[in-house]
Amino acid sequence: MNNRRQYTPGPASAIQCCEFWSSRVDALDRHLSANTWALAAVSVVLIAYPIARIAIPAILHGIVLPDVVRTVLSLI
Fold first, then answer.
1. What angle do CA 60, 64, 67 make, to 5 degrees?
2. Pair 65, 72: CB distance under 8 Å
3. What is the tens place of the pLDDT at every residue in 24-61?
């Protein structure tokens, strides 16, 4: 069990992990071309648009019942 303790991350290793990840992301940012960024942006839009148009209204419809909406609109 003592061997396991040496692999447990401590606060210093968490900071080192964040710094390592940050340097990797910065390197990636410097080496990607404009075409790659444009392709990534289009991909994000193509994925986010159906979620915004289908999933979010379905979730809201499941949370807020239509009878509640009718009641609020009739009070107005």
1. 135
2. no
3. 778 777 887 888 889 989 999 999 999 899 988 888 88
